[in-house]
Design a protein that fits this description.
Elements lengths: L1 H13 L8 H14 L3 H11 L2 H5 L26 H14 L2 H24 L8 H11 L10 H12 L3 H11 L4 H22 L4 H20 L19 H8 L18 H29 L8
Helix pairs in contact: 2-5, 3-6, 6-8, 7-8, 8-11, 9-11, 10-11
């Protein structure tokens, strides 16, 4: 926005603006740290860039030429102009260093950034309708393979909450961005989200906000995949949801009471395999027969009509 541009200009003039990541220099620093074991400079850069909305948004800028894997004429603006090759290279190099300090520094930076983004949204009483900078940052963070690890799920939970709370226009922009993803990117992100849902359901034994946020993100990925058909529909089946121990009857009940419950997996039927869908159809049939029986009883009492069920 003009106000943001003016603020950035003032920061640049005063020398207080956050610097974008110098990719070649950072990679060289990471390689050097492997040999020396001195991670101080690396840790500082991680903290400076990945905890700063301004610094991260000005990093990993893609050159104008880009091609969509789904070949539906996506323009760089719609794909948010992210250099995913550079992003992946950074995460690969940081992982290869093999330092838990670096992993924790990266997750701490993510956590700080997400807290600042959510605080800004609270103060503004909502997210902006056209927050391309915010969406760029979200997608850069989602590329991290560390998010697959359960002990980093609290950070992933915050990240998915940010995605789930975006306005419809921003979520449409995310779907457009997912259309530009490679198969490997889609496989990784779907796996991260599915793993979270499975682990969280087994541990919490309940449907809560983290499950809702994760499923909404999975829904955006499914929407994109429905257009480009990169993944199999079976990739969206969730193991925990289709497990015999999952209370599918309770989920069906939640689905049938939208005024009381805002979320049910039945709203996202792609997570259910054929066997589970068959069980849902049986529940639907049983409920219909029950309602017909109740109607027949009432008619026989108040109207005197013949009741075929009595």
């Amino acid at each position: 926005s003009p106000n943001d541009a003016a603020a950035s200009a003032l920061k640049l003039a005063s020398g207080t603006a956050e610097k974008s990541l110098d990719l070649p220099a950072f990679l060289a620093s990471a390689e050097a740290a492997k040999g020396t074991g001195n991670y101080a400079s690396l840790l500082k850069t991680i903290g400076d860039v990945f905890s700063s909305s301004e610094a991260l948004d000005s990093s990993f800028i893609l050159s104008p030429a880009s091609v969509s894997v789904c070949d539906i004429s996506q323009k760089p603006k719609e794909t948010l102009s992210i250099d995913f090759t550079g992003v992946q290279r950074i995460y690969q190099v940081l992982t290869s260093v093999g330092s838990s300090d670096i992993d924790e520094a990266l997750m701490t930076a993510f956590d700080k950034l997400l807290d600042s983004l959510m605080q800004a949204a609270d103060e503004a009483e909502g997210w902006p309708e056209t927050g391309t900078g915010l969406l760029r940052q979200v997608l850069i963070l989602l590329e991290s393979p560390l998010l697959m690890e359960p002990h980093h799920h609290p950070v992933l939970c915050k990240l998915m909450r940010v995605v789930a709370s975006q306005p419809a226009s921003a979520q449409s922009a995310l779907v457009a961005a997912f259309l530009s993803y490679t198969r490997d990117q889609l496989v990784q992100l779907v796996s991260v989200v599915q793993h979270f849902i499975t682990i969280h359901l087994y541990e919490s034994q309940q449907i809560d906000e983290p499950i809702e946020s994760a499923t909404r993100l999975l829904g955006l990925l499914h929407e994109a995949n429905a257009k480009c058909k990169v993944l199999s529909y079976m990739d969206f089946y969730n193991d925990a949801v289709n497990n015999d121990e999952f209370n599918i009857k309770e989920d069906y009940r939640r689905w049938k009471q939208p005024d009381r419950y805002r979320f049910a997996f039945c709203q996202y039927p792609f997570v259910y395999d054929p066997s589970s869908k068959s069980r849902i159809l049986q529940l639907e049939s049983t409920m219909k027969m029950s309602h017909e029986f109740e109607d027949a009883v009432l008619r026989s009492i108040f109207i005197g009509a013949t009741c075929p069920y009595l």
